Amino acid sequence: MAKKNTNEMSFLDHLEDLRWLLVRSTIAVIIMAIVTYFISDYLFDTVIFGPTRPGFFTYVYFCELSHQLGFAESICITEMPFIIQNTQMEGQVNVFIWICMLFGFILSFPYILWEVWKFISPALYQNEKKNAKVFIFFSSLLFFMGVIFGYFVVIPMSVNFVATFTVSPTVINQFTLDSYIGMVKTSVIASGLFFELPIIIYFLTKLGLVTPAFLRTYRKYAIVLVLIIAAIVTPPDVVSQTIVAIPMLLIYEASIFLSVLVVKKEKGLALKK
């Protein structure tokens, strides 16, 4: 058998490393999902279905904020005019499994980042390899901040909007369990990953695929997109939309700032050479 060339072996080695990254990450998610199983009662009753109750923290806080801003009871929530029902025989079983897996992924995220770092570290400079702890810490922090933002802001706003919106008093809102859980999963994971934008921009800038000028040029489009997202997931009032939009815009601006720092650092290294 002919001997494989070096480039081919190197590519296959990378594929093998990627395969084991996925295997170990999956095992970590499953282990944390099993841990989540033991607190499933609290997880569902208090966490998952918390935003469906008027006494949820976000609703109470916004009500107090409306009084302070002189809006009286305009954004106070006293009831949730809808019910959540299961329409499939295996519906609750599937939801139970996927929620455990979701929280397993969230809890194991720092470990997954560690695996990703080990995978990409051979392509980094020696001084950059020493920043593993910094990378994992800030990436995990941003992700958890995004998850918290999604849970305490995006989900309550979305639930409040769809619960109170109606085309006619004749129509009664009866949401399926799958649709509610799908909204929870999407809001939490999407927010967590969106908050990873500065980290993504950091690596894209280092690879030369993104520049601060590019990000500034498309800032106006980003603002419009953020405002559209905020308008979709919130009730039609300025306060709610602003609360959702501001953190997302700050994340984008932080990405531009980080891109500028990377470019300056690269230029400094180039001058030293």
From TrEMBL:
Pfam families: TatC (PF00902). NCBIfam families: tatC. It is found in: Cell membrane; Membrane. Forms a complex with TatA. HAMAP family: TatC (MF_00902). One of its GO terms (biological process) is intracellular protein transmembrane transport. Coiled coil: none annotated. GO terms for cellular component: TAT protein transport complex. Belongs to the TatC family. This is Sec-independent protein translocase protein TatC. Keywords: Cell membrane, Membrane, Protein transport, Translocation, Transmembrane, Transmembrane helix, Transport. InterPro entries: TatC (IPR002033). GO terms for molecular function: proton motive force dependent protein transmembrane transporter activity. Part of the twin-arginine translocation (Tat) system that transports large folded proteins containing a characteristic twin-arginine motif in their signal peptide across membranes. It is a multi-pass membrane protein. The keyword Repeat does not apply. The chain crosses the membrane at residues 21-39, 95-114, 134-159, 179-205, 217-236, 242-263. Its main location: membrane.
